[in-house]
Amino acid sequence: MKIKPNASSTELTSPFFKRNEVFCQEFEAFITKYNGKVKGNYNVWSYLILGQISEPKKWNLIYKKSTFTSSGNLWFSSKDQSLLIVAEWTTQRIDTQNSEFEIRKKRITDLLQLKLNNKTATLPISEKYIYKSNGTKPALITKLENILKGLFQSEEVYRITYKNNLLSIELRSEKHHFNTFESLLEL
């Protein structure tokens, strides 16, 4: 299946539509490079695209973009516009050496938790992130720090979880980050 436009005929010449179209075409080309499957839709306001590759390891990739305006007019509503951009990469890992964990940005409420709880610690690569685990720092966290270093520094990492053998990496970014993703394939 392919990624298809679901835009009205008046949207087809919009620069926003063209930008989303290029983003989706690049995503489709990347997934196809790994003999993967894609599906999804895009228009001037949004896209929802899904890709799955099976080699060398099965990964699911989801990219979502939604633009919301109170007036319904993308051209004249830049002041009251909000944007949600999410990329989520997931894979199953059967690795009993890595306990469950979560990595996310610090919140104000975490200051007390960091002092009282030995299961929560600041991520060494960035003071703006913490990790929670059931005990000692899992080796997988160190590997992820090395691979995702640039995304931690740019604060594009939103959350990483490893639970029930499912590794989920969630980003807030307008970029594909295919080079970074390809490094994850070596995990």
Explain what this protein looks like in three dimensions:
The protein is an alpha+beta fold and 187 residues long. Helix content is 25%, strand content 35%. The protein has 5 helices and 10 strands, in the order E-H-E-E-E-E-E-H-E-E-H-H-E-E-H. The protein has a 10-stranded mixed sheet, with helices on both faces. Strand 2 (37-42) and strand 3 (46-53) form a beta hairpin. The longest helix is centred in the first third of the chain and has 19 residues, at 15-33. The chain is globular, with a radius of gyration of 19 Å. Mean pLDDT is 86; it is low at 74-80.
Total number of helices: 5
Spans of at least 5 consecutive residues with low confidence: 74-80
Total strand segments: 10
- From the alpha-carbon coordinates, what is the Rg to the nearest angstrom? 19 Å
Q: What is the global morphology?
A: globular
Which helices and strands occur, and which strands form pairs?
Blueprint: E1 3-5, H1 15-33, E2 37-42, E3 46-53, E4 59-69, E5 81-92, E6 101-105, H2 110-116, E7 120-122, E8 129-133, H3 139-147, H4 149-153, E9 157-163, E10 166-171, H5 178-184
Parallel strand pairs: 1-2
Antiparallel strand pairs: 2-3, 3-4, 4-5, 5-10, 6-8, 6-9, 7-8, 9-10
Quick structural gist:
The protein is α+β, with helices and mostly antiparallel strands.
Main attributes of the structure:
alpha+beta, single chain, 25% helix, 187 residues, ten-stranded mixed sheet
